[in-house]
Amino acid sequence: MEHALSPATLTELRRPRPYPAVSVLTPTHRREPENAQDPVRLRNVVAEAKKRLEHDPAVTRERRTDVAEQLDQAVAEVDLTHAEDGLVIFAAPGEHQVWSLARPVPERVVLSDTFLTRNLVAAQVAERSFWVLSVSSDRVTLWNGGGDRVTEARLGGFPLTRDRDNFDAERQERTGDLPSAFRDEDTRHFLREADTALARVLSTRPRPLYVTGETAALSLLDEIGTVTKDATHVPHGGLAHGTPDAVWQAVRPVVADEDRRNVDTVARRLEAARGRKAFAAGVDEVRQNAQQGRIQLLAVEENYRATVRADSDGGHLVPADSGDLDVREDIVDEIVERCLDTGAEVRFVPDGTLGEARGIAGVLRY
Predict the structure, then answer these.
(1) What is the pLDDT of residues 154-198, one digit of tens each?
(2) Cα(274)–Cα(353) distance, rounded to whole angstroms?
(3) Residue 91 near residue 70 (C-beta atoms within 8 A)
(4) Which of 254, 242, 251, 246 is nearest to 159 (CA)?
(5) Which of 65, 249, 339, 355 is in the most buried spot, having the most CB atoms within 10 Å?
(6) CA-wise closest residue to 142 among 292, 4, 308
(7) Is 97 helix (H, G, I), strand (E, B) or coil?
(8) d(C-alpha 333, C-alpha 349), whole Å
(9) Which pTM does this prediction carry?
(10) DSSP single-letter state for residue 171
(11) pLDDT above 70 covers what percent of the chain?
């Protein structure tokens, strides 16, 4: 199952497909007893997708068979034992993908000529992804961070390693037996290679970066690094050979501090916008401004959801129940995707941060 949404991957997902491009969404659960319902819901929503294919006159028999087979293959790849909060399946003639999301999604089936990406986009932003680079003199490991965990990222040539006869770099860094480990030319060259490799990763997948290592390693990166020089440094050795949990425990307080600073910055910007009457609040007002491309900064509380429908005039959104006609259950994710498409910053903040703004607010460009 897929987890990381890069700009290149998003562009590929939004590419028009031969009809039908099927998007299947269903909520999932991380823990018992709620997760007992997940296999049944998945089976039912996929059956609904196949029923829609069967009754769509625009779908030929050949394509119906092809896409149904792609759906079956996708379901076979789903691992509900490691489920997060939402599951998205994309299937089109000759292809399929399965995405696990750390953000709830509504249960729905969409047939179109493009895949429905708004929920992936919102989940990616809400997770506040980051990179961790763990450096030692014989190994450099890249970690993919987001939510409440990190996992090793095996991409861009990482992990980088080098062999040194009769040399236990990690032990010597911990015990201090080799104070010059980060001053020899081979080590300098090795870390330059790591810095260059990371620059290539960041060019296509830009995120905040944290670098862990012994103080000597971080000092060397200050001297020779480019992207690593400007990262947030965390003085903690031994993590290049460490476990994901050890890395997360080391960077967690630093990430939390950065999150708090970002929330404070968002609050100040919203308050300043309110003073100069460049402020929007509430799902209807924010949605209208987002459609016009007027949002400069969008702030959304982490667990804010809204189920709405258009009013009788079609100009405004009003609260609705899930079973209502023409209901829009993922309007928040729609707004997030629209704001990102028009160049806005999007920040998810803790529940209660926005007060009277009712879960969602924006700073306007004009």
Answers:
(1) 999 999 999 765 445 554 555 444 445 677 788 999 999 999 999
(2) 15
(3) yes
(4) 242
(5) 339
(6) 4
(7) strand
(8) 15
(9) 0.78
(10) H
(11) 94
